[in-house]
């Protein structure tokens, strides 16, 4: 049951490529803007506030299973797509259950479908225990290889799990890798400053 809670929908790569054209004129910036993701009818007790570069695009209407899909463009047309999702707990998660979810085995399992595991760490975000997982992947869209470097955050409370995911993509692996690690501290800062009200 604990593992099933970690299964989130994955944004199709086709949608990511479509967003590249729509966002191609956006320049990267580190100026912060605050985006309160309001409580929804499905999860009326939850709200998330995330701080992002002001020219990244925030879409709150993509899916009922996600609070937002966020798109940005780094230099050389490398695309960043981020998602904010929530999975309610099937039962109240106590401290012991959360520690199990943050074990090495469970963190690897949570992203086993996403690519090659690069590393993980445990941390605290807005007073909640959380895990960070780094992954790289290669996928093909209509015969074109797309290389991705991904950063996942699983933020746990007794009510359920908030997930932040950041995916940096490019048709060239070296470009995706360079852009990801150049912006890694920015992505970590976004996660660290996210606030959650349950």
What does this protein look like?
- With about 200 residues, this protein is α+β, with helices and mostly antiparallel strands.
- It has a single domain (about 5-75, about 90-195), classed as Mog1/PsbP, alpha/beta/alpha sandwich (Protein Transport Mog1p, Chain A), CATH 3.40.1000.10.
- It has five helices and ten strands.
- The protein has helices at about 15-20, 95-100, 105-110, 175-180, 185-190, and strands spanning about 30-35, 45-55, 55-60, 65-75, 80-90, 115-125, 130-140, 145-155, 160-170, 195.
- A seven-stranded antiparallel sheet has the order 3-4-5-9-8-7-6, with helices on both faces.
Write a compact overview of the structure shown.
Helices cover 22% and strands 43% of the residues. By secondary structure, the protein is an alpha+beta fold.
């Amino acid at each position: 049951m604990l593992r099933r809670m970690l299964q989130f929908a994955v944004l199709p790569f086709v949608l990511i490529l479509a967003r590249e054209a729509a966002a191609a004129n956006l320049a990267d910036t580190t100026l912060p803007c605050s985006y309160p993701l309001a409580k929804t009818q499905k999860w009326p007790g939850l709200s998330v506030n995330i701080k992002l570069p002001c020219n990244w695009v925030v879409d709150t209407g993509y899916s009922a299973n996600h609070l937002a899909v966020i798109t940005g463009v780094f230099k050389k047309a490398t695309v960043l797509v981020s998602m904010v999702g929530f999975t309610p707990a099937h039962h109240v998660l106590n401290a012991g259950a959360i520690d199990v979810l943050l074990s090495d085995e469970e963190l690897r399992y949570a992203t086993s479908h996403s690519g090659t595991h690069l590393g993980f760490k445990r941390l605290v975000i807005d007073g909640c225990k959380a895990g960070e997982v780094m992954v790289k992947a290669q996928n093909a869209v209509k015969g074109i290889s797309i290389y991705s470097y991904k950063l996942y955050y699983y933020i746990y409370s007794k009510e359920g799990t908030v997930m932040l995911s950041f995916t940096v993509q490019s048709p060239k692996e070296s470009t995706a890798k360079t852009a990801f690690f150049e912006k890694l501290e920015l992505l970590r800062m976004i996660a660290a400053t996210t606030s959650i009200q349950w």
